Amino acid sequence: MTPAAERKAPVRPPHPLRAEHLRGFAPFAGVAVLLTLGVMLAGSSSRWQGGWAETATEVHTVLLITVPLAAAAGCWQGGRERRRGTEELWGTAVRPPLARFLASAVPVALWVTAGYLVGVALAMLATWPYSQGDRPHLALLPEDTVSLAAAVLAGHVVGRVVPTRPAAPLLAMAGYVGLGVAMAGYSGPGLHLNPAFRVLDDRQPVWWQPLAMAVWTGGLALAAVLAYAARRRVAALLPLAAAVAAGTLLVQTGDGLWHPDPLARRQVCDTSPTPAICVDARYAGLLPHLEDTLSGITGKLKGVRNLPVRWEDRTHESHDAEAQLPTLRPFGWSVVRGRLTDPEQYAWEAAVALERRPECLHPTQRMIRADDAVENYLAPSPVTDAADRSDARGTAKQRAELRARRAARARLRAMGDEERREWLSAYFATAGTCDVEGVPAL
Questions:
Q1: Which of the given ranges, 163-172, 174-183, 205-214, 398-407, has the highest pLDDT on average?
Q2: N or C: which end of the chain has fewer CB within 10 A?
Q3: CA atoms within 13 A on the CB side of 158
Q4: pLDDT band at 319 (very low <50, low <70, confident <90, very high)
Q5: Exposed (0-12), middle (13-18) or buried (19+): which is 423, by Cβ within 10 Å?
């Protein structure tokens, strides 16, 4: 073998960006974003875990914190060379200013967005076991990712221009206040230009809204980068013009950027009991649990006439043929991770909803006692027991009224099955009205 053949191949030196990606400040910035997202989501898990729309809303709203954090990370990285005293040395490098800028800023942007995406993926995995029939909502994920990267780049420019240690925390505070003020407004241009705007769970963006928001935030950041580091600063006008056009489109469209989620407008029903039970199609998986919770009511109403056709998970007037199902939203109150937090209270509220009483100006004692007796018969509630204990310690009039209510409850329970069905049929014939004369006596 010749000496040339025995000669080892030259070892290629590592790429200059490798150290920035693996051993610089960038990985810490990505971990900081991931931990921030994780802590905030963990603290509010009862509000979103189990609902895909709620999960998407929560991870998007966290941008109120992560966008200022990303800007602060970029600002800290941007002022690194001034703090180290190596700014003049970098100025002698062969690379043009824009290349040097991107070599320092891009690793931080990549790690920040990676940390956010990992956090979103973990949130989706946490929701999946408790999902109730909806699908993952990912429409806002691209614009959120671009907004974080844009914040890093814009912050990096600030760090180069104002390379002092307080610049990063001050920029984070200013970003948080600015986004918060824009989010607090219910109208105006700031609402639709805010990348951390509050999203309603039952609405979806039009197809081009995420693209327009990404152009708005990304265009502004890119314009700032080119204005600072490009050889021909006039090049910054192109992304600036794109950002202005996208921002104008967002502001002029206004509330038209959003449309109702089709699933939120559709009801899915279990027609085996009477009344039937209908819920928002996004929560179809809750139907078996609701049917089991309300089985005590529907079992006692077998053979009773004049009942509402069904409970529906939407608002109804008292004169409608449907009763309003007690609300399932927002998550964290009635429902947590696909289960009712207080089934007894929920059943009592469902029983009250069957009465569909409007605000009667002059209800009689007969109506009040009949309503109370029906509620207590269909779904006894600890709330009613607490009210009874309070009246038992009250005035003589309150104690007398309590005795009358208890007597009415006892008479309804003491009826035979057929007699009780006839009485309940006559009672529900007056539901939804203030017909004090038509309410059967007890």
A1: 205-214
A2: N
A3: 25
A4: low
A5: buried
**pLDDT at residue number 1:** 47
Q: Assign 3-class secondary structure to the chain.
A: CCHHHHCCCCCCCCCHHHHHHHCCCHHHHHHHHHHHHHHHHHHCHHHHCCCHHHHHHHHHHCHHHHHHHHHHHHHHHHCHHHHHCCHHHHHCCCCCHHHHHHHHHHHHHHHHHHHHHHHHHHHHHHHHHHCCCCCCCCCCHHHHHHHHHHHHHHHHHHHHHCCCCCHHHHHHHHHHHHHHHHHHCCCCHHHHHCCCCCCCCCEEECCCHHHHHHHHHHHHHHHHHHHHHCCCHHHHHHHHHHHHHHHHHHHHHHHHHEEECHHHHCEEEECCCCCEEEEEHHHHHHHHHHHHHCHHHHHHCCCCCCCCCEEECCCCCCCCCCEECCCCCCCCCCEECCEECCHHHHHHHHHHHHHCCCCCCCCCHHHHHHHHHHHHHHCCCHHHHHHHHHHHCCCHHHHHHHHHHHHHHHHHHHCCHHHHHHHHHHHHCCCCCCCCCCCCCC
The model's pTM is 0.84
